[in-house]
Amino acid sequence: MRSFTTVFFQTGSVSLHPACQALFVGLACTVVLGCEPSSDPNREASQPSGPRDGFGQRLGTDVTSQPGRSGAELRAERPKIVAFGDSLTAGFGVSPDESYPAQLQRKLDQAGYRYQVINAGVSGDTTAGGVRRIDWVLKGRPRIVIVELGANDGLRGLDLKETGSNLEQILQRLQEASVPVVLAGMKLPPNYGADYTGRFTALYGDLAKKYRAIYLPFFLEGVAAHPALNQADGIHPTSEGYRLVVDHLLPVLEPLLEKPRPTPS
């Protein structure tokens, strides 16, 4: 049997019996890119604990980690990079220190960048959920926001006008606050139809251009469809998969970063 990820990300058309299509969509909305139901206690237990907002969604996690340094000290001296997204940002299925925000923090530290990375990922989140949470993000006065949202909208077949409108509201709010944005694009399985998948993919590039956001065309570039880089569901990356996500993200992010000047000896 061909792997789920191979079918999911294969280019071209896929012809399935209607019953199989229904099963595929059901599976996709169960396990793909954060559509997992939040009511599952086992899955909830796999996620980092932390405060929740007024919608019952888990708020972001400070993934900055330096032995002997208090969180208050680090927050006082480091500008914030907020990783804002769904389960791919939250790190569903991996430990907190294996999520992409945590690995990004370590990469930045190693490269000499003094930033604090906040994991504001919520499993199952949609662009509508992002709109509800954007004020919380802005209250933290972020220096940069990485937006990774919309895949769950597409997998549910939502009207792209609604998805586009929600992403626009998020980008507008960040632009009004003069916060630079990295917008991560997503892709859908080909069985959603060439028209829908094509417009979904194009939506991100169009919005990035309109709102002058830094654009990462595909968040899972080099990771999707590689079984060794994904968990058993075939979609959520492993720790190594998230490492590659960060490897592709960092060159896109770096033009926005300010490296501290060396301390005179």
What would the keywords be for this entry?
265 residues; alpha/beta; Rossmann fold; six-stranded mixed β-sheet; 11 helices; 43% helix; disordered N terminus
What is the overall silhouette?
Answer: globular
Strand content: 5-15%
CATH superfamily: SGNH hydrolase
Q: Which stretches are poorly predicted, pLDDT < 50 over at least 5 residues?
A: 1-60, 62-67
The major β-sheet equals:
6 strands, mixed
Q: Cα-atom Rg, whole angstroms? A: 18 Å
| CATH architectural type | 3-Layer(aba) Sandwich
Number of helices: 11
Indicate the percent of residues in helices. Answer: 40-55%
Total domains:
1
CATH class: Alpha Beta
Order of helices and strands: HHHEHEHHEHEHHEHEH
Query: What is the total tally of β strands?
Result: 6
Fold-level CATH name: Rossmann fold
User: Helix- and strand-based class?
Assistant: alpha/beta
Cα end-to-end separation: 62 Å
Please tell me the overall pLDDT: 80
Describe the 3D structure.
The chain has 265 residues and is α/β, with parallel strands linked by helices. It has a six-stranded mixed beta sheet, sandwiched between helices. The chain has helices at residues 4-9, 18-31, 41-45, 71-77, 87-90, 100-111, 127-139, 151-155, 160-176, 194-210, 239-253; strands at 61-62, 80-85, 116-121, 144-148, 181-184, 214-216. Helices cover 43% and strands 10% of the residues. The chain has one domain (4-255): SGNH hydrolase (Rossmann fold), CATH 3.40.50.1110.
Helices and strands, with pairings:
Elements: H1 4-9, H2 18-31, H3 41-45, E1 61-62, H4 71-77, E2 80-85, H5 87-90, H6 100-111, E3 116-121, H7 127-139, E4 144-148, H8 151-155, H9 160-176, E5 181-184, H10 194-210, E6 214-216, H11 239-253
Parallel strand pairs: 2-3, 2-4, 4-5, 5-6
Antiparallel strand pairs: 1-3
Helix pairs in contact: 6-11, 7-9, 9-10
